[in-house]
Amino acid sequence: MKNVTITLDEEVARWARIWAAEHETSVSRLVGEVLRERMLRERDYHTAMEEYLSTPAQPISGGAVYPSRDGLHDRSIR
Asked: Is the sign of the CA dihedral 26, 28, 29, 31 positive or negative?
């Protein structure tokens, strides 16, 4: 375990102390759990993104003719 010092607004620190007491934990453990959840979420996101980007591109539908760039940006169609 690594000790770190953090700075919180008074209101946030008060809320954290109350929440931690209500849940029978410490502010230190609360912060550690929040940061760990964030780390895992980001790691999972990056893993999923790398997996998605490593697969070959697939056509939208078999044999369909894609619209032209001009057709996509034509503002007169309403």
From this structure: positive
Number of domains in the chain: 1
pLDDT (tens digit per residue) in 10-23: 999 999 999 999 99
Helix and strand totals (H; E) in the chain:
3, 0
Res 32 pLDDT > 90: yes
- pLDDT over threshold 90, residue 51: yes
Report if residue 78 sits inside a domain: no
Contact 22, 30 (CB under 8 A): no
> Alpha carbon of 16 to those of 36, 44, 46, 61, 66: distances in Å?
17, 27, 30, 52, 54
C-alpha closest to that of 28 among 43, 11, 19, 40: 19
